[in-house]
Amino acid sequence: MAESSTILSLAATLRSHAEQLRPGERLPSTRELVRRHHASPVTVSRAVARLVAEGVVVTRPGDGTYVAQPAESTRAVADLSWQTTALGDRAIDAAALRVYLEAVPPGTIAMAGGYAHPSLLPVREMSAALQRASRRPDAWTRPALLGLPALQSWFAAEIGPSVGADEVLVTGGGQSAMSVAIRALVPPGAPLLVESPTYPGALAVARAAGVRPVPVPVDEGGIRPDLLEETFALTRARCVYLQPLFQNPTVTVLDDARRHEVLRVAARAGAFVIEDDFARYLVHEGAPPHPLILDDDDGRVVYVTSLTKAAAPSMRIGALVARGAAAERVRALHIVDAFFVPRFLQEAALEFVAGPAWNRHLRSLQQLLRRRRQVLVTALARSAPDIDIPQVPHGGMHVWARLPDDVDERHLAEACRRQGVLVSAGRPYFAAEPPAGHLRLSFAGVANSSDLDVAVQRLAQALEAVRGRRAPS
Questions:
Q1: 38: closest CA among 6, 70, 3?
Q2: b/e per residue, 206-238, with b = 16+ CB within 10 A?
Q3: Mean pLDDT of 4-25
Q4: How far is Cα 401 from Cα 18, in angstroms, rounded to an integer?
Q5: Pick from 390, 399, 391: which is nearest to 372 by CA?
Q6: What is the pLDDT of residues 150-183, one digit of tens each?
Q7: What is the mean pLDDT of residues 360-378?
Q8: d(CA 245, CA 397)
Q9: Residue 473's pLDDT is what?
Q10: Can you tell me the distance from the alpha carbon of 404 to that of 438, in angstroms, rounded to the nearest whole number?
Q11: Residue among 241, 236, 223 nearest 302 (CA)
């Protein structure tokens, strides 16, 4: 269970007080801290225990709590230069993913992350589900390798009637499932066709596995089947990675007329289709089209989905659906990678999604995302009209913005950081040279809608500063 905000706040106060004392000096007694901070003895005890775990203070039973002596490092400085030769030239670059995960400095508005703000998360409901799951006598035992049967069945029902529960592999989130799928289906050195632009996490997985991502252009209707067919013929690739629903970053939805054509093109090439359905629960209005795997009759589509985006960053529960020999391979690789997903987390996920709280949360989340999307689009039109939004999304957590031709996206992203707003530059989303400058702007990672107005004002100021720097004197 996560510690309460009261405990964390008191721990921060005591930490600050300890930093003003010399090592060995005594902190006030528990009774004095209770009186001084109007806290319960349990809250004080847990706050002190947190500082003990951090090494800030030490407790002496019957005597009190004292500021700890600073630890002295006795570790010798080693020469690690030999590792450069031993590791070779294989690069694993996670830089494009760190923007989704980096800590946000105080006073900065985050529009670069990949997750919803804590205010949008069903924390209380998930905590209750975790409590119920943890009380089960078998919560800490090893689950079935493919996942809890009841959770497999739930995912199968969510995906559609042609998917059987026995075809579902429960994974540790969508990134893990996507990584397993790419590495299982595409051998090192082989090409993997990807949308251009596409999710940097897929590009990072491919490159880390020695797989060569090859871009296929996307327009307002999704990936172009004619260019997909040409690229299959030129590269002899045997797999394409797609995001048919609210594609990241362009937020396009694969056009109805293209869905069957994409599958026909893949069939003629003898290729697999990895369908990353990460945004299934992030629709803003209307009903999204059914997953592409439901149109697949010959085991061509390997399907990936996740609860993480809609539930919480640490709800690392996803699903991977594959059939035939592909299923055997992805399941074997999943065992090699992780053995299984912790049972208590699967139980907590099942407790949450199988009850009424899940659908209530989705309805609330969809309304809030729709409202925030509109606030952001309106603010951009008002304060930064030179930034073009080619497509207003009907789902997802962000907008994809094209910059004026005279603006360098890297300079603008850095200027935004200095102004106190984090944005994602567009370059990492392209497997090859991008055609223009872009920004990916999240409207889900901010605390409230008013922050979006402030963020766009800061973005406009950064844009003006970047352009002013280029203007002739």
A1: 6
A2: bbbbebebbbbebeeebbbbebbbebbeebebb
A3: 86
A4: 47
A5: 399
A6: 999 999 999 999 999 999 999 999 999 999 999 9
A7: 96
A8: 12
A9: 38
A10: 9
A11: 241
pTM of the model: 0.84
Residue whose entry in the numeric block shows the structure tokens 């149109």:
295
Q: What is the 3-state secondary structure (H, E, C) of the chain?
A: CCCCHHHHHHHHHHHHHHHCCCCCCECCCHHHHHHHHCCCHHHHHHHHHHHHHHCCEEEECCCEEEECCCCCCCCCCCCCCHHHHHHCCCCCCCHHHHHHHCCCCCCCEECCCCCCCHHHCCHHHHHHHHHHHHCCCCCCCCCCCCCCHHHHHHHHHHHCCCCCHHHEEEECCHHHHHHHHHHHHCCCCCEEEEEECCCHHHHHHHHHCCCEEEEEEEECCEECHHHHHHHHHHHCCCEEEECCCCCCCCCCCCCHHHHHHHHHHHHHCCCEEEEECCCCCCECCCCCCCCHHHHCCCCCEEEEEECHHHHCCCCCCEEEECCHHHHHHHHHHHHHHHCCCCHHHHHHHHHHHCCHHHHHHHHHHHHHHHHHHHHHHHHHHHHCCCCECCCCCCECCEEEEECCCCCCHHHHHHHHHHHCEECEECHHHCCCCCCCCEEEEECCCCCCHHHHHHHHHHHHHHHHHHHHHHCCC
Average pLDDT value for residue range 59-79: 79
Rounded Cα gap, residues 458 and 452, in angstroms: 10
Percent share of the chain, pLDDT over 90: 77
Q: What confidence tens digit (pLDDT) does each residue in 96-128 have?
A: 777 777 777 888 999 998 899 999 999 999 999
Low-confidence winner among 64-73, 326-335, 396-405, 420-429 (lowest mean pLDDT) = 64-73
- State the pLDDT at residue 251: 96
Angstrom distance (rounded) from CA 39 to CA 4:
13
pLDDT at 73 over 60: no
Q: Is 312 a residue whose pLDDT tops 80?
A: yes
Tokens of 277: 């359905």
* Amino acid, single-letter form, for residue 18: A
**Structure token digits, residue 118:** 């804590």
378-387 mean pLDDT: 96
Give 8's pLDDT tier (boundaries 50, 70, 90): confident
Residue that is written with structure tokens 């629709």 in the block? 283
Tell me if 352 sits within 8 A of 311, measured CB to CB: yes
Q: Enter the tokens of residue 61.
A: 């039973």
Which tokens hold the place of 212?
């060569």
Give the model's pLDDT for residue 75. Answer: 63
Q: Read off the amino acid at residue 182.
A: I
Q: Residue for token digits 């795997």?
A: 293
Question: How many Cα atoms within 13 Å fall on the side-chain side of residue 97?
Answer: 11
